[in-house]
DNA sequence: CGCGGTGTTGAGACCTGTCAAGACGTGTGG
DNA sequence: CCACACGTCTTGACAGGTCTCAACACCGCG
């Protein structure tokens, strides 16, 4: 099940047999954890990173008022906190949105990668830069897109990312987020999320029921979102 | 004037004499450019990165409607597009907000760093992860903070970053952004930026005139912003 | 001396938030 | 097996923060 991760890398560049062996040696242990747990709190020292194998996690930031902002979603194949390797602590919490299975990757092993595998280092560096590109797209959404466009954009993004992970098929995928959590991603209240989803349904762009989303009209949804997957860097390039 | 850059690195980790020499060898040429120019367009292939020595630049994303979102500001000492080294093209434009001077750093030289200087590689990796941390804080601002809190937060952030660059002093610094550009950073219209600034002035938190900002009441401004500089990773740690 | 960019102000509209209540589904304990 | 609690989803009425449109002042610059 580390295949989703390898696939994510191989979408962007070739991974040699040597490198694949090194990658498979990164995980020190596999861990299962329940839903709605805080795995890592902001500010605490971290000594390993989290390679998500199954389930959804999120990076969350809070305000004192109790308002929360989900700043990124992690799906299988993603490192949720590869940036912790160089940052040494995080500026946000890592929480599980569903039951999850993940591989714990000690930072010493990543450090070894940087000492012995320069190309793989660049590829992992790219992965954190890809996270940043997603952050920038979310910033654009929150700053300039309407509620319905934001929602449509998120659904498009996840369709691509879950496709790479091998868990989206035919424009349809399991969608575990509650409307409260969707609001925390999109900077909206749960009430407005509800109304926005209804509008997307009424326009016959998506179906969403039983925690599963189906994109009914992909061109239409992409148009509402102004979605362009260029920011996901889906082309293979030597790095 | 590459000192601002070295200082920015040294705030986070030690830089050896060897590494400093390598860094000073990165810049292939120094270039001056006027204000309001687009240096790099999204999607185009990039083969060098931009080390800002003087002036302000921004990373900008557009919507078809013509609405713009500034997703990050660059100040002296920052690489505006170090992430271009692994991404190979950008998902945003790079524009100048003032007249600028910058060093052009060919990607082959950065590649050499990754082959020969693993520690320095980790430090530059950290710099892009720091960018991402700033993105996350902006995401929180746009998603959850009010207009006045967003504005206050940005002013606090720039005070810290410009302090590291050596161009902010005594809670005061040159502030070249127009109110339109401020709106593009904060997801607001220029009209509302104007009213928000007036409220900050009326509360005696800042002064802003002749393109220079002075923080009159730093604790008060930080309180309005809920500003905590932890996300800027100001402590030196071995990486 | 006129012009374009910038900053300021006012009135009204609109998108999204707030508050409240009820429906629905599911898990749990009695 | 039922009763209940709880989380989630839905809906309505109203409030409020921010946007839109418009007009005008100011100022550096050609």
What does the model show?
The structure is a homodimer of 239-residue chains. With 239 residues, chain A is α+β, with helices and mostly antiparallel strands. Chain A has nine helices and eleven strands. In chain A, the strands form three sheets. In chain A, strands 2-6-4-5 form a four-stranded antiparallel β-sheet. Chain A has a four-stranded antiparallel β-sheet with strand order 8-9-11-10. In chain A, a hairpin with a 2-residue loop joins strand 8 (168-169) and strand 9. The longest helix of chain A has 27 residues, at 118-144. At the A-B interface, strand 5, helix 3, helix 4 and helix 5 of A face strand 5, helix 3, helix 4 and helix 5 of B. Chain A binds a DNA duplex (30 and 30 nucleotides) through residues 146-147, 178-180, 188-192, 194-195, 198.
> Largest interface here, residues on each chain?
A-B, 53 and 52 residues
Rg from alpha-carbon coordinates of chain A: 18 Å
* Element-by-element helix/strand order of chain A: HHEEEEEHEEHHHEEHHEEH
Strand percentage of chain A: 15-25%
Give the number of DSSP strands of chain A. Answer: 11
Helicity range of the residues of chain A?
40-55%
Low-confidence stretches of chain A: none
Number of helices, counting only DSSP H or I runs of 4 residues or more of chain A: 9
- Mind summarizing the main beta sheet of chain A? 4 strands, antiparallel
> How would you sum up the global shape of chain A?
globular
| Sheet with the most strands: spatial strand order of chain A | 2-6-4-5
What would you call the structural class of chain A? alpha+beta
Oligomer: homodimer
Kindly report the average pLDDT value of chain A.
97
From the N-terminal CA to the C-terminal CA of chain A, the straight-line distance is: 25 Å
